[in-house]
Amino acid sequence: MQHHAYYIEGSLSQFDTHKTALKPFWASAFERFGIDESRELIALSSLKNFKEAVFLIGAASITSEAQQALLKLFEEPQIGTTFVLLVPHGALLPTLKSRMLPYPELSPVAENGSLHREAKQFLKIKGKERSDFIAKILNDDEGVKERVRDFVNALEIELVKDIKKNRQGLEDIAMVRDYVGDRAPSLKMLLEHLALSLPTI
Q1: In degrees rounded to 5, what are phi and psi of residue 19?
Q2: With contact defined as beta carbons under 8 Å apart, do 21 and 106 qualify?
Q3: Looking at the domain assignment, is residue 41 inside a domain?
Q4: Are residues 93 and 140 both part of a single domain?
Q5: Which 3 state secondary structure label does DSSP give 183?
Q6: Do residues 86 and 12 make contact, with C-beta atoms less than 8 angstroms apart?
Q7: Tens of pLDDT along 51-91?
């Protein structure tokens, strides 16, 4: 690697795949990467000079405060350290993203075809059909939070194709994704909000 900070835009469900491929010195996944986690990463990476160490951080959501705290670290890292962030599409602030490069070998990861078909289908229907659709997504408790997050990311990928037209919908998705990262979110309420607010396309 020539650069010292990279990003991969994708789902936290892909974390283990990237961890296996990168073989990092340190790796951790977070529902929400906040200011405290940012400070811990800064402290950990400054303990000593590494001959070569990759730090892989996976985050379902990352706060703006955390990103601001990482600015200096990514500008002036210790020699031998490389950072790779796995975050949802559109989660990085321009100021932080400008100090990073897309990871060339792993970004983007192949899309989950069935998930994107579901997102397209959801955006074509309305009203009660959307509510029934949500009920199916929430039907199985196992891995439901991750499934909802991946579905929200798939919706965003569809809407981002026309940013000007779908700006409000993209803002709603960003808000919902942030709440999904909470400790005990009401997933049904969040998805029902999207069912009402997202356009039919």
Answers
A1: -60, -45
A2: yes
A3: yes
A4: no
A5: coil
A6: yes
A7: 678 999 999 999 999 999 999 899 888 888 889 999 988 89
Are 50 and 138 part of one and the same domain? no
Residue 107, in any domain of the structure:
no
Q: What is the pLDDT of residues 110-134, one digit of tens each?
A: 445 678 889 999 999 999 999 999 9
Same domain, yes or no: 27 and 93: yes
Contact between 42 and 73 under an 8 Å Cβ cutoff? The reply is yes
Closest by CA to 24, choosing from 49, 57, 48, is 57
Question: Are the beta carbons of 147 and 137 closer than 8 angstroms?
Answer: yes
Alpha carbon 200 to chain centroid, angstroms: 24
End residue of a domain, out of 102, 135, 150? 102
Label residues 99-134 b or e (16+ Cβ within 10 Å = b). Answer: bbeebeebbeeeebeebbebbeebbeeeeeebeebb
11 shares a domain with 48: yes
Query: What whole-number distance in Å separates Cα of residue 169 and Cα of residue 159?
Result: 7
| C-beta separation of 82 from 1 below 8 A | yes
pTM over 0.70: no
**What is the spatial distance between Cα 132 and Cα 150, in angstroms, rounded to a whole number?**
18
CA nearest neighbour of 87 among 137, 141, 156: 156
Of 6, 51, 55, 2, which is closest to residue 26 (Cα–Cα)?
55
